[in-house]
């Protein structure tokens, strides 16, 4: 993949394209993402998840309603209306993103309590939004990096792309390389493994198809 290929998929990158071309090529080579089908599927997910590689740290600038919709479900209420009004973005104050992360990610994914600050410390970073102390630990061990002590490394192109390639290879919920699904064109199942649902599926499929055309 070269600079022109990447800019065709992520045109807003501009001058940062060169850094990401090298980072993505190195990451794909390390984890055998080495056919057009595999690379297109990988790049389709990367570009969608990171808003065209322009977002390398999780955006927690939620309104109260969106905050509750994102993090509450039938089994768990992480934000009451009162908490959402206090921490989320309103006409009266900006979002307290640090507290949102600490509440949203407390006591799961290896994180400690709200007071521990782990939610903010291990919030989503990188093109694949690596999240949670357990994932930072496992990814760091696989890459030979101390991501627990220095999690901000994941927000940089080189480590961030490696982190997503690690996730692609064996850190995802299937426990298997997503190359296997890319090989048979199951982008819906790739997307499920990456995102946990069907969010943005149409764009993920379109980006994958575009990448196939660009890389041909």
Automatic annotation (TrEMBL):
The keyword Hydrolase applies. GO terms for molecular function: hydrolase activity. Keywords: Hydrolase. It holds the Pfam family Glyco_hydro_19. The keyword Ion transport does not apply. Residues 105-170 form the Glycoside hydrolase family 19 catalytic domain. This is Glycoside hydrolase family 19 protein.
């Amino acid at each position: 993949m070269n600079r022109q290929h990447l800019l065709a998929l992520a045109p807003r990158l501009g001058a940062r394209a060169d850094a990401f071309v090298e980072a993505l090529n190195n990451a794909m080579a390390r984890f055998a993402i080495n056919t057009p089908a595999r690379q297109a599927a990988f790049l389709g997910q990367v570009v969608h998840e990171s808003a065209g590689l322009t977002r390398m740290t999780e955006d927690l600038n939620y309104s109260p309603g969106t905050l509750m919709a994102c993090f509450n479900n039938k089994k768990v209420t992480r934000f009451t209306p009162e908490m959402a009004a206090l921490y989320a973005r309103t006409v009266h104050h900006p979002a307290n993103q640090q507290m949102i992360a600490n509440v949203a990610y407390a006591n799961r994914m290896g994180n400690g309590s709200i007071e521990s600050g782990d939610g903010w410390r291990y919030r989503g970073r990188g093109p694949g939004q690596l999240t949670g102390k357990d994932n930072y630990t496992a990814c760091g061990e696989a890459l030979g990096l101390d991501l627990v002590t220095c999690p901000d490394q994941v927000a940089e192109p080189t480590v961030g792309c490696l982190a997503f390639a690690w996730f692609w290879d064996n850190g995802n919920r299937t426990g298997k390389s997503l190359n296997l699904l890319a090989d048979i064109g199951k982008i819906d199942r790739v997307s499920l493994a990456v995102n946990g649902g069907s969010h943005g599926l149409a764009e993920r499929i379109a980006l994958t198809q575009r990448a196939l055309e660009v890389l041909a």
